[in-house]
Amino acid sequence: MTQEEHRLAVLGAGTMGVGIATLAIGYGVPVVLVDIDADRRAEAPDKVRQQLRMAQLMGGLRRDAQAGGLTVTDSLDAVAEATVVVESITERPEWKAKLMAEVTAVLPAGTPVLTNTSGIPVDELAGAAVRPEDVLGAHFMNPPYLIRAIEVVRGPRTAQASLDTALGLLTRLEREPVVVGDGPGFVINRVLQRMINEASRIVQDGIADPAAVDALFTGCLGHRTGPLATGDLIGLDNVVDSLQVLLDRTGDEGYRPSELLVDKVRAGDLGRKTGRGFHDYQGAQR
């Protein structure tokens, strides 16, 4: 397969799904974006156009690039001609497993299905697939068109051919894949989610406020953002879901979501996407 022949299907038109679609379209790869939610489908084309402009302004995409086409649908049958599929729905194991079974049933053998899960072991999801050897992980960071490195997770049953095809697409998109082994949280989230959780506990215990916690990480350790601002960017609901996955699969109490995190999710303060999380994004951002 030449690089120009790739066709991507993205399952889920949420924040990450739209971002991944934007990345591919910006590099001239046509995308089929699938979501069962009518409102998300209706909003997706405008969101992709907005993010394409933002990506170009911020240097994530070339201004003269030939954009790929976008098809938005609620039908899984539309992904049958994709060369690579990326699953990017809500971090619920039972939902992801059900979708994995459904999508692999309509795909030809040898079509890689990349799960963008934050922490569910790849082999766990592969067990629901018609062909486990076609399943692997691709943990994109947000926003995908600005962050080049991608954590690629090879499950114990992932075939070399499927891995090679997936890496070929990522190369076509000028990403920098780092291949790692399987396990709860892989590398990034096994460390990151616990750090966000511990930072939340520090605020909960009154040791420091969110601005102070993040200032120490940016000023002393050189992080681009601190752990709490990172949690706000991810979405605190997604953080809680990921922590619960890690807790269930490792039994490590360090992953039990802090009371403050749970309270913020219950209150609807989910981070940037709702205007407020640990920081306030409705007015002047701290």
UniProtKB/TrEMBL annotation:
| Metabolic or biological pathway, per its Swiss-Prot or TrEMBL entry | Lipid metabolism; butanoate metabolism
Site Important for catalytic activity: list residues.
H139
Q: Where is the 3-hydroxyacyl-CoA dehydrogenase NAD binding domain?
A: 8-182
Its GO biological process terms?
A: fatty acid metabolic process
What InterPro entries does the record tag this protein with?
3-OHacyl-CoA_DH (IPR022694), 3-OHacyl-CoA_DH_NAD-bd (IPR006176), 3HC_DH_C (IPR006108), 6-PGluconate_DH-like_C_sf (IPR008927), 6PGD_dom2 (IPR013328), NAD(P)-bd_dom_sf (IPR036291)
Record's protein name: 3-hydroxyacyl-CoA dehydrogenase
Entry GO MF terms:
NAD+ binding; oxidoreductase activity, acting on the CH-OH group of donors, NAD or NADP as acceptor
Annotated residues for binding of NAD(+): G12, A13, G14, T15, M16, G17, D35, E91, K96, S118, N142, K273
What organism is recorded for this protein? Micromonospora arborensis
Keywords on record = NAD, Oxidoreductase
SUPFAM superfamilies, from UniProt? 6-phosphogluconate dehydrogenase C-terminal domain-like, NAD(P)-binding Rossmann-fold domains
Recorded family membership = Belongs to the 3-hydroxyacyl-CoA dehydrogenase family.
Instruction: Enumerate the spans annotated as 3-hydroxyacyl-CoA dehydrogenase C-terminal domain.
Output: 185-281
